[in-house]
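Researcher: I'd like a structural prediction for the single chain below. Treat it as a standalone chain; there are no partners to consider.
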Amino acid sequence: MAVKPLEDRVLVKPIEAESKTASGLYLPESAKEKPVQGKVVATGPGKRLENGKRAEMSVRTGDTVVYGKYAGTEVEIKGEKHLIMRETELLGVLAG
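Model: Treating it as a single chain, here is the predicted structure.
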C-alpha cells in the first residue's frame, strides 16, 4: 500500500532517538522524548495558488527534516509509524 499525500502535505518517517546516552546508560521508554527529526517518504504536488498553478514544494523525498514535537497526524503504514503534516509545519531541512 502506497500513500500519496495531497496538496502541500508531506509523509515523514520519524527517526527514533538513541536509547543509550553518551556515557553508556540505557534510557527507559518513559524517559524518551518524541522524535523531532524524520525522513521525507513522499510529498504532495504542492498547494494550489489563486491563479490555478501549484506552488513548488521546498522538500523532496529523502530529505531529513526537523518538525515540532506535536506536529502532524500519526498514521501506521505496514506496521510502521509515520506522520502526515503540512509543509508549513516543517521547521527546517538538515543539510548533508
